[in-house]
Amino acid sequence: MSSPPKDFDRPRFLPAFTALFFVFLFAPIALVALFSFNSTRSLQNFQGFSLQWYERFFDNESLRESLIASIEIAFVTMVVSTVLGTMLAFGLVRARTRWAGSANVLMLIPLVTPEIVAAVSALILFTQIGWRLSLETIMIAHITFSISYVTVVVRARLAAVNPEVEQAALDLGATRWGTLRLVTIPELWPAILAAGLLVFALSFDDFVISFFTTGESPQPLPVRIYSAIRFGVTPTINAIGTLMLAVSAVLIGLAIALPRLLGRRESGLGVLVGREAA
Amino acid sequence: MSGKSIRAHSAEPSASAIRFEQVTKRFGDTVAVSGLDIEIEPGEFFSLLGPSGCGKTTTLRMVAGFEQPSEGRIFLEGEPVERVPPYHRNVNTVFQSYALFEHLDVQDNVAFGLKRRKVPTDEIRTRVAEALELVELRGRERSKPRELSGGQKQRVALARALVNRPAVLLLDEPLGALDLKLRKQMQVELKGIQREVGITFLYVTHDQEEALAMSDRIAVMEDGEMRQCGTPEEVYERPGGPFVAGFIGISNLLPATVENGGIRLASGTRFAAPVPEECSDGSAVHVSVRPEKIWLDELEDGMVALEGTIVERVYVGTTTQVIVELAAGLRLVALEQNTARQRSDDRWQIGERVRLGWQPEHALVLR
Hints:
The complex is a heterodimer of chains A (278) and B (367). Chain A has helices at residues 13-35, 52-59, 61-94, 100-106, 109-112, 115-128, 135-160, 163-171, 176-204, 208-213, 221-229, 235-261, 268-272. Chain A is mainly alpha-helical and 278 residues long. Chain A has a single domain (46-272), classed as Orthogonal Bundle (MetI-like fold), CATH 1.10.3720.10. With 367 residues, chain B is α+β, with helices and mostly antiparallel strands. Chain B folds into 2 domains: 18-237, Rossmann fold (3-Layer(aba) Sandwich); 250-366, CATH 2.40.50.100. In chain B, helix 5 links the parallel strand 7 and strand 8. Chain B starts with 17 loop residues before the first strand and ends with a strand. The model of chain B has no long low-confidence stretch (mean pLDDT 88). Classes of the chains: A mainly alpha (278), B alpha+beta (367). At the A-B interface, helix 8 and helix 9 of A face strand 6 and helix 2 of B.
């Protein structure tokens, strides 16, 4: 052997394999984005660049209303479930009761419940108590399943907070509330931010629960797209899809950039993928 | 280094800094600390020494206010503290993990306590600067904790506590995470800082050398109880029992019985030793001889003389530990200086018979 093999346990086909995986993952999305800029109706041939499908989307009042409704729902869901989920995480990590074990498992149930079951139960509940289906009912249903996501992310982070750091704050004259405000929340907030953005994304593109709990009008964007698609796929749908993709990309960018801008080592995304320091 | 404004000012000079009165702490069925009675003087460097699980950290945490005694009372500067929450106690803690606030820079970490006490901004600036001067960290004000080395983090933790001028500084194995060389250096510095600021230090450690090197007094703890309390010389030269003798220094503990006012080893060997009055004939005792008090080969008149086989030889630089077996299971460690005139690692061959002895007064008879 002239030269010893390098990287013994890293087979050479891995880069190719990884590239293939990413093509598989992103090709459909890339196509949608590409054809959203097509100058003709065709979904097979790209004939030239134009923004007409985006114009059509913004000219269509009902689609625009749906977009605004979706953003409203996602925003309210994010704020409410982040607050409630963080409080739940505190209870689960800090409360030393004999119920803590059961509560920790029970809180995972919304994550493993088939969405259709959650959607139908929410629908039945709202009709039983006579609550007219509207944006509020979607928000409540979304908040219900989102709390668990927030709790899972924040709880992991909270459990990793060194108790001595909080004791140090108490020791240096901070009250319990002061310790929470000055030390614990600053330690947690990349996780809280990440959880909030995750929940925003989940709520923004949720279809099943939204479909069952939506009122007549305005309908959230994914439900509106579904109704539109029944009358044939138009390149407008591609434009909407691309826009939603852009929103998600912005969210990911925020999750990475916000903690950095405020002088933190870890990104919110790092918290989500289980990497402490990016 | 200037520590003039960090210097302690005790409210009541006559009161002791800390007083434990029959303090017991139970966690469920386990007793962590039992019947502790200690009085610590203002300005004293006092160490709690013992193996892990002996209750020393629990004791410290009760002073800080993170734990409440199950029984008994703790007084800080003469005042009982059971109703005082941690944030109103005039003590500060240096934690083993340093527990620095990662999202704050060095300056804000050190200023944290002063800000909580609403100290004027100008005063905060001067006091933080002085504290950083004292721990030799000027110029690192804007660094984040993650940019600092272990030793520097340690200094920030120390400055963050000292800047508040507490009546007592509590230190929980503060040097435990540092490497040996840095630890030795910090021991000297810490002792110097304590002398300079005059604040009472309550220091928890499991490192007997550290406790001996730094403390004015040491309380040796085992299983939640205090076994002995005294100056480093007292606990080393006159250990109060087999545990203290074994925990501090190399043990050299031999089980024995008292016979005719002397000592009889299990092997049958008899020799003279200062037997305490309360040990009557036939009572089971332990004999302890410090390794540096044992002579090998050349003995003087009046020495206790025994014979044994050299079974091991450990060269540790300035000295060589020679392990001699007197009889099956009875071993003694002798410490030989590696001076210019002799190198004991050449001199002592494993398997050789050797005479060893000590002055009778150097044997400690422990019940």
